[in-house]
Amino acid sequence: MQKRASTYDKVTVLLHWTIGIGILAIGVLELLRHEVPKGTFLRGGLKALHQPAGTVLFALIMVRIMWRATFGTTIDTAKRNFSTYAAKLTHLALYAMMVGLPLLGILSVFGRGKPIDFGLFQLVMPLGDLIGPYARSMKSAHEALAYGILLLAFVHAAAALGHHYVLKDDVLARMRFARSRRVADLRPGGAVAADVGIGSRTLVSA
Fold first, then answer.
1. How far apart are CA 71 and CA 3, in angstroms?
2. Relative to the CA of 158, which of 74, 86, 147, 169 has its CA 20 to 30 Å away?
3. What three-state secondary structure class fits 2?
4. Which is it for the CA torsion 97, 176, 69, 87, positive or negative?
5. Cβ atoms within 10 Å, residue 199
6. Rounded distance, CA 194 to CA 16, Å?
7. How far is the C-alpha of 24 from the C-alpha of 46, rounded, in Å?
């Protein structure tokens, strides 16, 4: 069951940063691969890394979607304005691209009758007869989506930094790992209280 709060839970935060860094790393390495001369060991190694890394990333994305739909925390939004709806549309587009990008890549590999090689084992799904004629189109769509998701991720990051440094709100802070602290304080009347900070909230107990 989903929970509503002012900050995201630790699992959501961990998946967010892991997937975000993973998308950026795979994208940068793939751009680098195209700059390396063909036939070199480095280019071959980067190509061999791309498919299994993308498959692992796809699995993490599906875990994040299932977590968000079940046990993940959703944020209570006090105001409904243009920026709120723009953020929701951006998130929907990001999720669609995060699913579509690796899925198209995986299907294009299987459609060409090739396995995804993890070194110690291989993932094999003979889909050549079913989607073989569309494998090249899927690969082209996969490559186009890669540029799209990098651009959208940049817009997403720029918006988060704008909220933090310009608007000075807690949008970016929601995606930080919460830290708890206990501070003893003498309240009026002689009662000893403890402030426990959780994310951007503070719980006070006497």
1. 7
2. 74
3. coil
4. negative
5. 19
6. 31
7. 15
Per-position pLDDT tens, the chain of length 206:
555 556 788 898 999 999 999 999 999 999 999 899 998 999 999 999 999 999 999 999 999 999 988 887 776 665 667 777 887 888 899 999 999 999 999 999 999 999 999 989 999 998 988 999 999 999 999 999 999 999 998 988 888 888 778 877 777 777 777 654 433 343 444 443 333 443 434 333 33
Convert 116-145 to b/e letters by CB count within 10 Å (16 or more is b).
Answer: beeeeeeeeeebeeeeeeebeebbebbeeb
Instruction: Report if pTM > 0.85.
Output: no
Q: Are 54 and 26 in contact (CB under 8 A)?
A: yes
Q: Is 183 left (phi over 0), alpha (psi -120 to 50) or beta?
A: beta
Q: What angle do CA 4, 8, 14 make, to 5 degrees?
A: 145
Q: How far apart are CA 138 and CA 104, in angstroms?
A: 6
CA distance 121 to 106: 16
Q: Please report where in the chains the tokens 């390495």 appear, as a residue.
A: 29
DSSP 44-85: HHHHHHHHHHHHHHHHHHHHHHHHHHTT-EEE--S--SHHHH
**Could you tell me which of 103, 19, 105 has the C-alpha nearest to residue 61?**
19
